Amino acid sequence: MIKPPVRPVTPGRIPEAVALKLDNGIPVFLIEAGTEDVIRIDFTFDAGQAWENRPLTASAVNRMLTEGSQNFSSSKLNRTLDFHGAFYNLYCDRDRAGILVFFLSKHVEKILELAREILFLPVFPEREFKAQMKKRLRWFLVNRDKVANIAMDQFYESVFGKEHPYGKQVVQEDFKNLSRDCLADFHVRHYTPGRLAVVISGRIHKDTVPLLNRFFGALRPQAADVTRSGYELKASEIKRVHIEKKGALQTAIRIGSPAINKLHPDYPGLKIVDVILGGYFNSRLMKNIREEKGLTYGIHSIITSALLSGFKVISTEVSKKNTPKATDEICREIELLRRVAVEKDELEVVRNYMLGEMVRMFDGPFALAESFRSVWDFGLDNSYYYRLVRKIKTIEPDEITALATTYYNIDDMYQITAG
Amino acid sequence: MISYKKYTLDNGLRVLMHEDRSTTLAAMNILYNVGSRDEDPGSTGMAHLFEHLMFGGTAQIPDYDKQLLLAGGENNAFTNTDITNYYLTLPAENIETAFWLESDRMNLIDFSQRNLDIQKSVVIEEYKQRYLNQPYGDAMLLMRPLAYRIHPYRWPAIGMDISHIHDVTLDKVREFFFTHYAPNNAILTLTGNFRTREAVRMAKKWFGRIERRNVKPVDRPAEPEQTEARSLEVEKDVPADALYKAWHTVPRAGNDFYTLDLITDLLAGGESGRLYNKLVRQKKLFSEINAYITSDIDPGIALLHGRLMKDVDIRSAEEAVLKVIDELKEKPPSSHEMEKVRNKYESSNVFANTSILNKAVNLSFFELTGNPDLINTEVDLYRKTSRSMVTEAARKYFDPASCSTLYYRSSRDQK
Fold first, then answer.
1. Exposed/middle/buried for B87, CB within 10 Å: 0-12, 13-18, 19+?
2. What is the span of the domain harbouring residue B351?
3. Smallest Cα distance from A273 to chain B, Å
4. Half-sphere exposure (CA, 13 Å, Cβ side) for B181?
5. pLDDT for position A1
6. CA–CA distance, B126 with A301 (Å, rounded to integer)
7. Domain-embedded: residue B160
8. Within this chain, do residues B257 and B393 fall inside the same structural domain, yes or no?
């Protein structure tokens, strides 16, 4: 049977978010999309780890938001959210922190009322705080038992520095060194209307904006007295670190380095280089290390942006005895990328895969909101995506070699193993 | 409301189609009615290993992945105890590429010793990565044979033991393909931006040429009723003690499925669930606790697991768990609490339907259970679950005599 013709993959116009401001200046972005009567709201603050001076502060504040407020106990808060069929994720990233709430559009009023309690009126009860820290210590101990996490934490430390919040490793003592007052203080300074943005997507209820004004528009935007963490980003001198884990059946490998972020003009091109190397299922690393040698269940490469720096990292887990072999092959693939021009055929596959991804990134209300955030965080807009599409369509093999030569130097890369 | 059309080809392939014009994408899901429950106890993990081999190419199309990528597509697959399920999404205008690729590998896969050997190593690394090299990763490997003595649910989809994967031969692989991969043993579901009439035409064109195969029904032994509590205690190098409990329940299509699902939601649905509220928040016995029922075609289990806080005795923690469950047997939940779990279900159902891929996977599975309409009508079945049904089901199913317990102890000094 004859292969059906393939139409070129073409990401279309990206629907623009409608930008407006509440009475007190809080920016709100509305993305109307979807077939179901559901809403996703992202309340996002400039309150991520980059703003903390003591490990765990930013994430502990975030986790405590639903542990009791002026008008609701933690149980009542959760009971009410569940009763209205709402799902929420508290999140605390390197730069930003907040809450994502998913709910049926008809409950918008109740959800916004609860969101104000959670975000602006938490009381950080001493009892809940203590219990929370004990519980989180248990989670931490389980997570630190996984070679993937041990290697990743060390990788961040090596790449960003022992002291900077991007790199600092949490240790058991950190759970005892925090106090409820220190959380309340961080909250007052960082969870302010002036540091908040609201991104709403889905089938947006017509009362949403007036209700937002009712619950959030009268809060006073205090001039917050805050500075970023006092520590500098500082990559380590030591490029190779191994952490022994007794009895481990596999070794986790992390190879990578600090990188440019989305604000740099080379970023779209570098993204393509990264995909060729290890960013999709048919990547060179997957083909070589999984599909030809069967050394691993999976190997991936990713380049990530944070506000102060980006980083790129290759991750895999292999049997202990295969660690040197896998590491050598990773280095060999990096060398190949630097020295040999990409074949037309392979580049065609990568172009189409990436364009297909860009169609998926703007399909439906939730994907749209995520894609909006990942440029808005950097002060960029959809023109970044149009630039990326253009680069995917036009990049040539010599530019790929040049980018690989500039940005992938094996001597500059950190090689971290745990197992 | 998800409207769909069903069409059965002459060779027995069932095709379900749901148009969604709000997206520029299309999703294709192919469910093969074969899972680890169809395996021979001496050769487990076969269905899952076979899933890996399905990406190895055919004589016609040696590079499935590459061809899909060229059409802007993305794909993956999973295998569980009941089914092997392949799914993909791609820009809707390239939907015919999906028909071309999936019909080709349903027709005949290219078996090679080399590919088999490599995928065996990949699966063995997967086994280590997901089950053996994670704290508590082997808990379900221990729980299954405790709860099931005879039925094939006693082993997990990845296989009972790594040696089974080692020992698979090319002949076995070939035989497996021809006895399970067939149009008359599969369900094809399409969702997204296409016309149903066009989809039917393409289904006939691409899949219609594949001949019906002789699918032998597997004779599975029924699990005898458990009449005595079972337990197992292990000590391992993990950070804290953990407790696992399983009770026998009903098949996915069984009458009490919805009631049991709501019971586990009452117990563990989010932070307002009873177990979390009482045992994590108030009594501080567990750092986390969860409960759910399996969604299996044959009679399944209700599973509960929790990790203990420092210095908590595992037996007293277990007693506290049982007390929370007994309350459900003694007193019906309040109308408000019932309304809460029903609302939560309703909402999660709406959210599941925001994705064309979810809709495709779910429609296929409901078709397998015999009633694709359930994608729309299950909400009512949950709505109709009453307070007294909860009490009755709690008494009937959460019987100490049908319970299996795993005490997963830590060998470390507690920090």
1. buried
2. 230-410
3. 17
4. 24
5. 80
6. 18
7. yes
8. yes
Indicate yes or no: CB of A356 within 8 angstroms of CB of B72: yes
**B252 assigned to some structural domain:** yes
Residue B216 banded pLDDT, cuts 50, 70, 90: confident
Q: Are residues A414 and A342 in the same domain?
A: yes
Residue B1 DSSP SS3: coil
Residues in a beta bridge with B25: B91
Nearest-Cα distance to chain A for B386, in Å, is 17
Question: Are residues B300 and B162 part of one domain?
Answer: no
Contact residues on chain A for B72, CB-CB shorter than 8 A: 9, 352-353, 355-356, 359
- The whole-number pLDDT of residue B414 equals 65
Residues A249 and A167 in one domain: no
Q: Are residues B257 and B146 in the same domain?
A: no
Quick one: B194 and B83 in the same domain? Answer: yes
Question: Are A183 and A245 within one domain?
Answer: no
Which among A4, A103, A134 has the least Cβ separation from residue B97? A4
Mutate to test the interface with B, among A2, A10, A31, A36 (most CBs of B within 10 A): A36
Neighbours of A19 (CB within 10 A): 12
Check A4 against B122: CB less than 8 A apart.
no
Residue B270 scores a pLDDT above 60: yes
Question: What interface predicted TM-score (ipTM) does this complex get?
Answer: 0.94
Give the pTM. 0.95
Q: Look up the CATH number of the domain holding residue B48.
A: 3.30.830.10
3-state secondary structure labels for all residues of A95-123: CCEEEEEEEEHHHHHHHHHHHHHHHHCEC
pLDDT band at B361 (very low <50, low <70, confident <90, very high): very high
A148: in domain: yes
